[in-house]
Amino acid sequence: MNIHAVREQFPILHQEVNGHSLVYLDSAASSQKPRSVIDAVKRYYELDNANVHRGVHTLGSRATDAYEGARAKVASFLNAETPEQIIFTRGTTTALNLVASSYARETCGEGDEIVITQMEHHSNLIPWQQVAKATGATLKYIPLQPDGTITLEDAEATITPKTKVVAMTYVSNVLGTVNPIKEVAAIAHRNGAVMVVDGAQSTPHKRVDVQELGADFYAFSGHKMCGPTGIGALYGKKELLNKMEPIEFGGEMIDFVELYESTWKEIPYRFEGGTPLIAGAVGLGAAIDFLESIGMDEIDRHERHLAAYAYDKLSAVEGIEIYGPKTGRVGLITFNLEDVHPHDVATVLDSKGIAIRAGHHCCQPLMRWLNVSATARASFYLYNTEEDVDALVNGLIQTKEFFGHAIG
Description:
The protein contains 14 helices and 17 strands. By secondary structure, the chain is an alpha/beta fold. A hairpin with a 2-residue loop joins strand 1 (16-17) and strand 2. Helix 2 (35-48) packs antiparallel against helix 10.
């Protein structure tokens, strides 16, 4: 992978922030967009803008072809069996809430169990809290090891024949942990449960095969993988999707409407009521084209190299505590600088043009497990370099010196 050729395709990276060249290290929150994605969305609005599945005119046909073409690209990208198993949503949050509201609330009852982990993003935690409250099911947690990983032995002990749903992030947005989804899915299936996978942090960074993983549902967002904001998708096994009722009602999700009764279209359209996210889907399709032109394995190798490089560099700085496993992590490093609040760290780094994330990362239970109120996080993507990591390390050393003098 020619990193400099890749960077040239991202217009936003070629600017100064606070008098310094931008070093963008917050891709786990939202990635930047290549020119091809920006142009695809622009071209849709300039040439093909029309509603889909409705008009018989040329623009409507072109828009429909682009929208359904993007669905086919997503299906291929995830190795889904058919495009009909891909439901376009606003993102991972909407997709997970759809599964919780439409599938789990109808499946779970008193005495049933829902199993998750403490490393879950709120989007894969709160919906299951609500299902448990609504149905009387019990919410259970697979315990975390001291390095922020889980063991299959603990998964076996936590998942029982009473378990109806196992919901787990493929990659932790705080710890960088890569969870053994395939093995946990096998345990879930042996106990008669379905496997729900939060793919927000995995889909942009590594090759995903939902069939090999054994995922019954898989959710992800486009904006973290070079696509537009406001678009994502849910993959589901056809037999499960066909049993689910829509949770939004309106235009284009219906088959027949009578005065007192209505029937629904087949999947996926019954879950896409109203005017869908057409431009977003077009942009997501372009993002998939872009990522595949580079190669997901290449992207994965590049980010793992940066993560290892950053781990070693940051570990050498006295007073920095790094969270999560040393090996087997994806391209992000979550840390704290001793005696300095993460927001102060992020503010000082921003003054040097370095963008990182600071806060609880929508993982408050995990923060409590780590015994901190917040952390700083630097996350890497295909356009980042070792020089970006060096800039981060130098910025942290200067931050440490600044606050050391201020405290002294």
